[in-house]
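Q: Focus on the chain.
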Amino acid sequence: MKLDLASVVSALGGVLHGDATLEVTGLAPLETATSQHISFLSNPRYQQQLLESKAACVIVAPQMQAPAMERGACIVTEQPYLYFAKLTQLWKRGRDPRSEGGIHPSAVVDREAVVHPSASIGPLCVVERGARVGADTVLKSRVTVGEGCVVGERCILHSGVVIGADGFGFAPNGDLWEKIEQLGAVQIGNDVEIGANTCIDRGALQDTVIEDGVKLDNLIQIGHNVRVGRNTAMAGCVGVAGSATIGEHCTVGGGAIILGHLTLGSHVNISAATLVSKSILKPGHYTGIFPIDDNAAWERNAASLKQLHSLRDRIKTLEKETKK
């Protein structure tokens, strides 16, 4: 595929400095781009890479226009990273024109399921009884949408996603476990993207809800009766236990764990590998990671942590004696 710079700017905006007829054949990072590529710079710290790059054209912010023009053609825009994201979409549309909606011959769709004619159901997918798949939604290969579950419009569910498996619910019965039937479903809004092999469990009584615009990475576990607010994003291997409520516009770093029945307010950002063990209602960035160390030092520090409670009590006693 080839695209000239005039076509890029015509489609996406920005101000072009350089030859509008110059054609590019691909997108690439600054350090590996050739004279056939278009690249971008979103962080001024990488200015040296910009100057050394062989890219045919670089997308930059206004403050980087001068050094960008020194090395060649550039497109100036207020948000280079966002512009680059839209460019990838433009490129994919041109390279891989989307086929009309349809159901792959190997997919299994229950006669009581509802699939919009513009939706695309990939190889070996299963859409169970009473499930609904909305307009322009794409199910990649081996996706399962369980009984009674709803997937909204313009969603992308990548390979291996399971929507509506039973939530983890068991009642003790002596030495045994009695299954609690999961009678709810999963409701997924519009413009949601769910990464490969992510699982979203159906609710026990009420539905598990994923609101509009949510983005979930690969290998995420969403427990039963969880609610995830609109435009929240989670990186890979996050685990959210049952009945947790996550607000709008939150981010959760890879490998983080959110315990059940907790609430995260809107605009809460959780660092990777953090264990969230209490509700967080105030917007902000939260981290709870014990720093890595060699094993012997880590064990000594861990042993010291166990003594913090008694040390606190001793300090309080000393403070009281000092005040006398």
